[in-house]
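dumping this here before i forget
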Amino acid sequence: MNRIEKMEKEFLNAIKIYPQSADLYNDYAMFLYRYKNEYNMAVRLLAKAIRLNPENRIYKYNYNKVLHNTEIKFANYHNFLVLLILGIMCWLSINGYHNFLNMFSLFLVAQIVINYQRNLYKKYN
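structure:
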């Protein structure tokens, strides 16, 4: 058992003993975020910490930080998807596959992803 696994086990044991400790949920969430890249679980645990202690600014800051980085991660997947679709469209046009319906459907999918990216950018800027 490596150090990370031991730390996780200790966090889980501590949460079993002190299930109402907002500090434990916050610390465990940040551990998952930093060392295990488990963003969704970290967001859930931070939400629970905020429910237990709604006045704590650190919990809210950590929640927003993890949530923002999670959305950026998914935005990067969408950017890759846009590049892939554009690459397929270029390949189809270069190789003489000018089937209008195929090209139009790929164009629509690309537009949907691009609009999603624009909305995500507006949300954070």
